[in-house]
Amino acid sequence: MEKTSPDQPIHAGINTFMRAPYIPKIDDLNGYDVGVIGLPIDYGASYREGAKHAPRSLRAHSHWEDLDGGEFFDSDTGGIVTAQSLSIADLGDVTIYPTDAKRTNEGIVNAVSEIRKRAFPLVLGGDHSVTYASFKGCHAALTEAEMPMGLLHFDAHLDVEQSYGVMPEVWHGNPFRTLIDEGLLDGENMVTIGPRGLIAKKWIDYVRAKNITLFTTPDVQRQGMQTVIQQAIDQLRKHCKSVYLTFDIDCIDPAQAPGTGTPWVGGLKAEEVIPAMRQLSDLPVKAFDMVEVNPPLDPSGQTAILASDIMWNYLSFSMPKKSS
Questions:
Q1: What's the pTM value of the predicted model, to 2 decimals?
Q2: pLDDT digits (tens, 9 = 90+) for 221-276
Q3: Do 232 and 210 meet the contact criterion of CB atoms below 8 Å apart?
Q4: Residue 193, strand partner residues
Q5: Engineered SS bond to 318: which of 167, 214, 227, 280, CB 3.0-4.6 Å?
Q6: Which of 114, 111, 147, 108 shows the shortest CA–CA distance to 129?
Q7: Where in the chain are the domains?
């Protein structure tokens, strides 16, 4: 199936990511650079549900973008940059069992693993609990030479808490603690960028005990995003052979990204995050997820548009080639 013609209006055709062809079977993904999978889940959210609508919204608001190797004038530097030309397939959504998180996670692990064996997984969450199973799936598909796999984590929160009330065993407050506890992720191989405000001391104590590298929003403001990203790259390349990239949209100032379930005042700026995505070409990233976009909280679609632009900038300028 061919993608919707760029000569057609952006609202025409099947609602797929960047108007890519819909491929219902992962076995048919061979030959594509990127495999897009949706995880419409928000039962792992402890506050303000709605992230389950994000995959559909992200697809709808990605229609104006293509990955066709275009040349662009960079107004920040005054130079000309050339985007990668990539072939994308949209695989639709993983089957969700809202009352059976374990069964859903098994489906996510299998889907992401099979995508990773054939192409680069681009994962559309969903609340941040989805990263647990998506990371496991990517991890399962890697070779011994690609281990260990680290994590680059953009977020307003640490997500290293423990179990919480009636939430599932893995919820959006503890995916990384769970991965560390299960031995799939070493804290020394994790970099978190963007937390801010008052943070419970016990979670900071955990971060320090596990040697997780933390750059708060004030750190970014003091040092500059470019410097912070270079330090993150150096840290991860020193310890890891591959990296999983997870982007929680609430790391960005809610004035710019209001459609998220757990906003926190202040935050990173879109105008510094987007160039940061272009700076990551030196990292051997094996999968990328976008999480915590909450469309019902932003009827304008501003947040989904920004999330789509963040993904486009990463794919266009930083995604590793198939040979890497």
A1: 0.95
A2: 999 999 999 999 999 999 999 999 999 999 999 999 999 999 999 999 999 999 99
A3: no
A4: 154, 215
A5: 280
A6: 108
A7: 17-317
